Amino acid sequence: MPELPEVETTRRGIAPHLEGQRVTRVVVRERRLRWPIPEDLDARLSGQRIQCVERRAKYLLIQAESGTLIGHLGMSGNLRLVPVGTPVAKHEHVDIELESGLALRYTDPRRFGALLWSHDPLHHELLAKLGPEPLTAAFDGERLFQQSRGRSMAVKPFIMDNAVVVGVGNIYATEALFAAGIDPRREAGSVSRARYVTLAEEIKRILAYAIERGGTTLRDFIGGDGQPGYFQQELFAYGRGGEFCKVCGTTLREVKLGQRASVYCPKCQR
Asked: What would the 3-class secondary structure string for 72-115 be?
């Protein structure tokens, strides 16, 4: 599933080609995504000039003059730019055609993504209760420490809770916990303030670095420029269960936490 760095990579790839452009037509070939695409999306968006492309958590916000298109890539979706009239392949569900002659094409084999319209996106039911962005000053180790008090759940699903902080998905939670030396199975409420400070710093560092590296190529992900991400080549723990730890040589172990596979080093993480 595309995570925050992949979504931010997509945003950075498409924004320069969308901002300031007027939409000439919206072609919807398949409306049945996770939630149905609005029947009147073409009428709402056509003729509108796109003002900016922003991101909130894993949602892309394409702001036009009279409203905002909220996009989510689901498990396998991607957005890329193609010339208007480019032949359509299977699973290419939507084209947003621009006056420049380019079209923003949405592809989603599993159809778990979303394209919704809102006049107040930050108060939309999908976004209203989200926690702070991890790469802002609103998120730090003190917040993690305070939010974790009295929590018996494991620390990994705790930092993946979007009410605590947004965008720390399975890949980056695994990597950040490895870098901070924290066992992902440890109770969230038992982690000290000092260790949460370190963990928050590692979350920020790893997410920022992954964005600069273009995200992580996993199965279907392709950025807005049509290129894959490269962070996967540098993973220390995620997806490496049974392999040797790059730091100490110990065999990495894999467990299930919150229905998700989690890999850790029994020597480096405690």
From this structure: ECCCCCEEEEEECCCCCCCCEEEEEEECCCEEEEEECCCCCCEE
Instruction: List the Cα angle 253/256/258 in 5-degree steps.
Output: 145
**Active-site residue, selected from the candidate residues 2, 5, 157, 184:** 2
User: Of the listed 3, 6, 97, 175, which one is catalytic?
Assistant: 3
> Catalytic: 260?
yes
In this structure, are residues 39 and 26 in contact, taking their beta carbons and an 8 Å threshold? no
Task: Give the helix, strand, coil percentages of the chain, each rounded to 5.
Answer: 25, 25, 50
| Nearest CA-CA partner of 62 in 47, 78, 77, 45 | 45
CB under 8 Å to 225, separation ≥6 — which residues? 13, 80, 81
* Of 156-170, 216-230, 242-256, the least confident: 216-230
Catalytic residue among 11, 44, 58, 80: 58
The 10s digit of each residue's pLDDT in 179-204 is 999 999 999 999 999 999 999 999 99
Task: Say which amino acid occupies 52.
Answer: C
3-state secondary structure of 21: coil
Query: Known catalytic residue: 2?
Result: yes
Q: What is the model's pTM?
A: 0.87
Strand 114-118 vs strand 68-72: parallel, antiparallel, or unpaired? antiparallel
pLDDT in tens, 222-232: 445 445 444 55
58 catalytic residue (yes or no): yes
